[in-house]
Specification:
This protein is α+β, with helices and mostly antiparallel strands and 156 residues long. It has one domain: Bifunctional nuclease domain (Roll). It has a 7-stranded mixed beta sheet. Helix 2 crosses helix 3. The N and C termini lie far apart (49 Å).
Length: 156
């Protein structure tokens, strides 16, 4: 892997008035991507391994990949322009003759994150995006503390 990316993980998914906030980062820094509520719910379900009664869109995509002998190698959030994040999904496919092919697709970051969680694929952010993103670690920490306090109140 090149040095111009940073490996991150999803630190949290929180509902907002307009959708969901996905907190991505490392132990040192966290930034936020805002996504629609439906994909936010899918990410949360994949993170919690919630069973579904029937396949959803991301499940269909995963089934198609498996049927084609392809898998998600990684996703990269590679750009941020005019308030919009962009991502690439890197797939690999190997045929019966063991010829390997790498496929790179444009994808919405929200769908890429959902599929990465579902497929257990690593998530990367380009260094340019990482360096330009505001650190939201304190916001995530405050939300986590409020959630713990609410949970404690419920136990009383």
């Amino acid at each position: 892997m090149q040095n111009d990316v940073v490996e991150v993980e999803i630190k949290g998914v929180l509902p907002t008035s307009g959708g969901c906030a996905v907190f991505l980062g490392t132990d040192d820094k966290v930034f936020v991507i805002y996504i629609d509520q439906i994909v936010g719910a899918a990410i949360t379900m994949f993170m919690r391994k919630v069973p579904k009664e029937r396949p959803q869109t991301h499940d269909l995509f995963a089934s198609m990949l498996a049927a084609l002998g392809a898998k998600v190698e990684r996703i990269i959030i590679n750009d941020f322009k005019s308030g919009v994040y962009y991502a690439r999904m890197i797939l690999s496919e190997e045929n019966e003759l063991h010829h390997k092919k790498i496929i790179e697709l444009d994808a919405r970051p929200s769908d890429s994150l959902a599929i990465a969680v579902q497929q257990n694929a690593p998530i990367f952010v380009s260094s340019d995006v990482w360096n330009d993103a505001d650190d939201m670690s304190d916001v995530l920490s405050r939300v986590d503390q409020e959630t713990i306090a609410e949970d404690d109140d419920l136990e009383l």
